[in-house]
Specification:
209 residues, alpha+beta, Nucleotide Exchange Factor Grpe, Chain A, domain 2, 3-stranded antiparallel sheet, 3-stranded mixed sheet, 56% helix, 14% strand, disordered N terminus
Length: 209
Amino acid sequence: MAKKPKNDPNLDADGLPSDEELDALQAQIDKAMEDVADRKAAEDSETPPTSADDRVAELELELANLKDQALRAMAEAENVKKRAEREVAAAKLYGIERFATDVLSVVDNLGRALLTLDGKAREDMGANAKNLLEGIELTEKEMMAVLARHGVKAVPGKGSKFDPNVHQAVAQIPSDEDKGNVAEVMQVGFTIGERTLRAAMVAVSTGKA
């Protein structure tokens, strides 16, 4: 800008630009900023929009992600359902474990009552005593059948292979049974489902003497 003479009417008395000159300069600045904004907008408008193929690819990716999430949710729901079914089955089976343990003492007493009688003692019984004995035998069989219906089963006894999971060895004796097999059963054992309710107390065969 050319320097104005000191007697220029647009200059103040101290030689500075007048208000009119300042307003005109501000207008030029504003116009320049508008031009810059217009050019920026024009440049942005020239940026090519997302193509249809790109949009389709984005939607397909989004759909695949949603399908994957849905499959994972379905798998998790199925796992929860199976776990719940297993827990219900286990509760039904093992829910009577304590009751079954208490009932075993009744089974033991019935078994001991029958073991006290040998064949000769049975022959010497009267009719009433024999009927009573038959009633005890039927009661024992019925008790075992009821326990079996509820998943409580007797552990294999004499002649079976010794199994530390279900047998408790209290002695080793010579017998006609093969070595390592159960020779005698002192107390019958029971399982409930896959659990050992009570291990059988047995004597293990050492083979023939």
